[in-house]
């Protein structure tokens, strides 16, 4: 019996490699197979899952970068800067009180006390806006880019130009105020004439109103120019340090900038006044030369910062507001001059009221501006901001920061008032009145809120 034979196997095509065969055929085959797989229908999950995962990763990264500070972080980060700022305000107030009581320059030229508040406010406003711009650049990651130093120089140049312009305006306003209030100059002149203290600079002739104004203008221009160079360098260094160590510069830079600014403004103003006073006693040529050079330098500073769009926009938006602030500050200077004649210890507390409250307002304003620049929208609407009760009860980070600054304002103020009073006792006993401290506390609460 014959066994059945298996069916014959089909012959498989054999592939033979030829050295003349190109590898392009294999590539074309792989491409055709991949395209055939792409043409096959896929499920919705296969199509959209990679995109969903990528979007979730992006959102997670953005949320990690924009996590708001907790109240504890804001308090701890701003505690030491507020303390340093308060010490700077105390030093500035004691220096101004000493000048008002002991220096014959203040009695000889009463415009000095009228001019000091606008100069302090000018430097404070420019320093706070500069530090806010630097903080915004740090939040946007510009500090990691090339050319950041050039941007800082251009912003500093714009600040220098604004300093000179507003300084000239403030001097004109103070001259006008003294001109329409002759009692201020007469009272100070009589006090100076009746004084038994003879200083080294009494051998110079008395200055007329115009000469004293030119003398003060030249001194103030030199003062704000020096302050701008020092403060912009200092503020950029602080912001850069905070950015490198993952701190929020909005919580740190404003109080530190204000502390050094007040001391520099008063100290440098007194220094340049005593430096130029002997020359102004026999000739007004030197003050005129300084003023002329400063006016001619304004276009140069503007040209240096013209290439930075952010700096130019800031200068355009800020110029009129700074002029208006100078007008208000000059009126405050008039009140300070009247108060200093009636209450000789008043200047010691004036810098505390304006300095410490200004620091808290600057911290909140800097945080708001950084949030608006990054998110392009506000956390609260106009109606919520218009009603303080609704504003302070909101749950957003801005309202929480405002509550923290408000509740800690009075303890900080009274602490530094106590230090200032104790230091004043060392120099000269002062009269203590509970009505003064009660009124001071009410003024602080109203001003900060």
UniProtKB/TrEMBL annotation:
Keywords: Ion transport, Magnesium, Membrane, Transmembrane, Transmembrane helix, Transport
Region of interest: Disordered: 1-41
Pfam families: MgtE
Compositional bias of kind Pro residues: 1-10
InterPro entries attached to this UniProt entry: SLC41_membr_dom, SLC41_membr_dom_sf, SLC41A1-3
Lineage: Eukaryota, Metazoa, Ecdysozoa, Nematoda, Chromadorea
Localisation: Membrane
Gene encoding the protein: Cni-ZK1053.6
The protein's name: SLC41A/MgtE integral membrane domain-containing protein
Protein family membership: Belongs to the SLC41A transporter family.
Chief place of localization: membrane
Limits of the SLC41A/MgtE integral membrane domain: 116-270
Membrane-protein topology: Multi-pass membrane protein
GO molecular function, one term: monoatomic cation transmembrane transporter activity
Record-level GO cellular component terms: plasma membrane
Residue spans of biased composition, Low complexity class: 11-23
Transmembrane segments: 79-99, 161-180, 221-243, 255-277, 289-306, 318-335, 404-427
């Amino acid at each position: 019996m014959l066994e059945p034979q298996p069916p014959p196997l089909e012959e498989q095509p054999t592939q033979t490699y030829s050295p003349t065969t190109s590898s392009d055929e294999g590539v074309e085959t792989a491409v055709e197979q991949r395209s055939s797989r792409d043409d096959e229908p896929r499920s919705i999950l296969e199509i959209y899952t990679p995109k969903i995962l990528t979007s979730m990763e992006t959102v997670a990264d953005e949320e990690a970068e924009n996590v708001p500070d907790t109240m504890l972080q804001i308090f701890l980060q701003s505690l030491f800067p507020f303390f340093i700022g308060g010490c700077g305000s105390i030093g500035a107030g004691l220096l101004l009180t000493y000048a008002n009581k002991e220096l014959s320059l203040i009695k000889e030229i009463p415009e000095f006390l009228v001019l000091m508040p606008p100069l302090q406010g000018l430097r404070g406003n420019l320093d706070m806006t500069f530090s806010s711009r630097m903080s915004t650049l740090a939040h946007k990651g510009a500090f990691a880019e090339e050319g950041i130093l050039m941007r800082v120089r251009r912003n500093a140049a714009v600040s220098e130009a604004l300093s000179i312009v507003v300084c000239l305006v403030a001097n004109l306003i103070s001259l006008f105020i003294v001109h329409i209030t002759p009692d201020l100059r007469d009272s100070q002149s009589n006090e100076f004439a009746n004084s038994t203290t003879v200083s080294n600079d009494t051998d110079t002739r008395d200055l007329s109103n115009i000469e004293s104004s030119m003398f003060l203008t030249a001194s103030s221009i030199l003062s704000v120019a020096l302050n701008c160079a020092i403060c912009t360098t200092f503020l950029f260094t602080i912001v850069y340090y905070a950015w490198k160590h993952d701190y929020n510069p909005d919580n740190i830079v404003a109080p530190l900038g204000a502390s050094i600014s007040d001391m520099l403004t008063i100290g440098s103003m007194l220094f340049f006044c005593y430096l130029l006073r002997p020359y102004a006693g026999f000739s007004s040529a030197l003050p005129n030369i300084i003023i002329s050079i400063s006016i001619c330098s304004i276009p140069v500073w503007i040209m240096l910062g013209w290439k930075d769009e952010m700096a130019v926009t800031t200068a355009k938006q800020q110029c009129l507001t700074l002029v208006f602030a100078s007008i208000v500050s000059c009126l405050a200077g008039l009140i300070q001059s009247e108060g200093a004649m009636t209450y000789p210890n008043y200047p010691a507390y004036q810098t505390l009221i304006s300095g410490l409250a200004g620091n808290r307002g600057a911290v909140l304003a800097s945080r708001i501006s950084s949030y608006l620049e990054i998110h392009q929208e506000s956390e609260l609407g106009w109606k919520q901001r218009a009603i303080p009760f609704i504003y302070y009860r909101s749950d957003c980070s801005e309202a929480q920061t405002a509550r923290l600054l408000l509740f800690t304002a009075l303890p900080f103020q009274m602490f530094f008032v106590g230090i200032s009073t104790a230091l004043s006792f060392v120099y000269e006993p002062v009269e203590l009145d509970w009505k003064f401290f009660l009124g001071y506390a009410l003024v602080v609460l109203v001003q900060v809120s």
